[in-house]
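hey can u check if this looks right to u? its 804 residues, i copy pasted from the old doc so theres a chance i mangled smth
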Amino acid sequence: MSGDQAGRPAASALAGDRLVGDVPREPPGFQPRPGLLAELDRPGVLALHTAAGVRGAGQTQLAAAYARARLAEGWRLVAWVNAGDTGTLMAGLAAVADAMRRPAEGTGQGHGDPGLVVRRRLEADGDRCLIVFDDVTDPDALRPFIPAGGAARVLITSQQESDLGRTIPVGVFSAEEALAFLAGRTLLPDDAAAGAVAAELGYLPLALAQAAAVITSRREDYGTYLNRLRALPLEDHGTLGQRYPRGVAESLLLSLDVLRADDQGMAVLELMAVLSGAGVRRDLLRAAGQAGALDGRRMAAAQVDEVLEHLADRSLLTFSLDSQTLIVHSLVLRMVREGLGRRERLIQVCRHAASLLEDRLQAFAGSSDRPAIRDLAQQVKALAHTARPAAAADEELARVLLRLRFFALYYLIELGDSAPQAIAVGEPLIADIERALGPDHHDTLNSWNTLAAAYQAASRPDEAIPLFERTLVGRQRLLGPDHPYTLNSQNNLATAYQDAGRQAEARLLFEMTLAARERVLGRGHPNTLNSRGNLAAAYRDEGRTDKAIPLLEQTVAGREQVLGADHPDTVHARNNLVAAYREAGRTADAIPRLEQIMAGREQALGADHPDTVHARNNLAAAYREVGRIADAIPLVEQILAACERSLGPDHPRTLGARNNLANAYRKVGRVNEAIPLHEQTLAACERLLGPDHPRTLGSRSNLAVAYQDAGRIAEAIPLHERTLADRERLLGPDHPSTLNSRHHLARAYRDVDRADEAIPLLERTLAARERILGADHPDTMATRKYLALACQDADQTLPGQVSA
C-alpha cells in the first residue's frame, strides 16, 4: 500500500522586509500625541475615527507615525492601503499581495483574489506585520479582507465609527498641543494671541497647519493672522462655511489666497484636485510640467520638484516616505475643485488631465510595471468621476474619458490579478458607453466583452455569461457568424460555460468554433490551434479522453510547426497532451514529452526557475507511475534542494517535495533515509496547521508506515492508532484515508503477533472496500490477502470459507 500524500501548510507571509504603499512622511511640526500612539500599540484590529465625525483631526498622521515607527524597528511588513473607494482598496491589496509573494511564486494569474491572499497570509504568518487601511468609506467593502486571527496588526482610519475593530476616537488637539504645534512651526513666542488663533480654529490640526504655514510664509504675527482670519467674507463663498468644520474653510481660503500668487503651485494643486485623492505619482506631475499642462509653459523635472517642496512647506501636500507620491488632504482637494467650478476652469483642467493620462496610457502599453498600471487606472477613474459635470458640457472631453476608461479596464485585465479593480472600473463604464454610443456600436460590444472577461477572471462566470451572450448576438448580427471577432466571442462564451460547469453547452460551442475557424482561417492558424486545444479540454472535462488525445496531438504538431518547439504556447499544449496521456493510463507515452519539456525549460530558464521545477516534478511523478523509482529519485532530490533555496523549508512546495522524496526512498528500500524526511514534514505540519489538519494526519501516517518498514513497529503502532482515531472522528469510518489507516494499523498488529486485534480491523476494512471500491480493486485485494494471513496466524477460518 502506498503512503498518503504530503501535507501543504500555509505559506510564510513574506520572504523578507517589505514596505508597501504610500506611507506619508512626517509633516512639519508633527505632534506625536503619545497617549493616542500608545493606544495603537495593541494587538488585533484597531479602528481610528474622528470624534464627532470632524475631518482634519489627524488620524491618518497618527496611523502614519505608528507605521513609520514599526518600519524603523525592522518589521517584516508595513503596508499602507488607501481605502477611500473600492478601486484604491483593490489596487492597494493587489500591491500588498505582489510583495508577499516570493520571487519563485511569480505574479499575475493563478493566485486568486489579492485581498483574500493578503488576509490568509496575515492570518497564517502575521508576526511583526502591520497593514493600515486609510480613509475607509465603506466598511462592508473592507470587511472580507480583514484578518480574523493571527498576530498581524491592523489599523483602520475612518471619519465614522465602525464595527471593524476596537474603536479609538481621535479628537482635536488639546490647548497645550495646539500651542506647542504653533510655536514649533512659526518659532513665535507662545503668547495669548497664539491661544486665540488656536481657539478660533477649533484646535483642529489641519486648520492649525494651514495657519502656521501662512504665518511663516508671510512673516506675520499671530494677531495679524487672527485679524485677517476674522475679516474673511465667508458670505461671498455661499455655503462654504457650513460645509467645512469650524476653522477649516477660513484657514484654507487664506492658504489658497496666498498660494494664488504662485501660478505654478496653484496649477499643481488644481491638477491634483481632479485626480485620485489617494495620491499622484511624482513622475506624472513631472510629465505634466514637461507637457506644459501646469501653467501653460514647459517645466523641467527639477522645476516641478521645487514647486512640490514649496507646497509641502506650506502644509498643502505631503510626500510619501519614498518621496515618489504626493498626497493632499481631501478637504484641500475639495476646496480647490470648488474654486475651479466657481471660476469656470474645471473643463480646462480636466482636458489637461485627460490628455496627460492618455499619453501615459499609450506609453505604458505592454508595460510590466504593475503598480504604475494600477495607479493609472485609478487616476482615470478619479478623473472620470470629477469631470462628470464638465463632460456633460463638452462632447470631446466626454469621448476622451470614455476611451481612457476603456483602456484602463483593458490594462487591468491584462495584469491578471486585478479583476476586482477592473470590475469597479468596468461596471459604470459599460452603462455610460451604451448610453453614449448605443447597444450596436463596436465599442459597446468591446466594453461588454471586456467586463465579462473581468467577471470571468474573478471567478464570477454567472455574471460573465450574459455579457458574453449579448456580445456574441451583437457581433453575429453586425459582422456575420464567421467574422473573426464573432468567433472570438463564441469562444469566450464557451469558456464561460465551461467555468460555470455547463460542459455540454461549452463543448458544442467549441465544436462550432473549431469548424468555423478551420474553414475560414485554415487548420494551421494560431486561433484554430487554440480552438482545437479548447475542444480537447472540453472533451477531457466530460471524461472523453480518447477524443481529446488526437486533437491535442494535432495541436502540439501544429504549434511546433507554426510557433516552434520552445514557444510557451507549444509547451503549454505539450503539457496538456501529457496530462491526457496520464489520464488515459498511457504514462509511458507521456514520458518522452515530459523529458522534452524539462530539457527545454532547463536550457531556457535555468535549473531553479519555478517552471523548470514544475516540469521536473511532473517527470518524476510519471517515472513513479511506471515504477521507475530509481529514475525519479535524482529529480526529486533536485526539486527539494531548489524549493529549500527559493521558498524556504516550510513552504507547501518544499514540504511536498520532501514527502515525495521520503516516499521514493522508502519504495526502493532506503527507509533509513526516508524516516528523517518524514519526521521533518510531520513536525512542520503540526506546527503550521495543527494536529487535526488532514495534511498533518497524512504526514503522521507516512511516518508510521516508514517506521513499520524499518522494523520499528513499537514506534509505528501509537502513530497508526492516533491517526486512525483522528480520521474516524474527523472524516468518518468509511473515508478512504480512514480505511488506509485501519489497514496499516492491522498490519502493524500482525507484525507483532497481535493477530486477534488485527482481524476485526481487517474485516471492517475489507467489508467497506468491497462495498465502496469493488471486490477486484487493488486495495480491496490487498486487505483480503492480509486478512487471510492474519486468520492463518490465529488459526482461524477466513470469513466465507468452511474449515477443513
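Residues 1-17, 106-110 have pLDDT under 50 and may be disordered.
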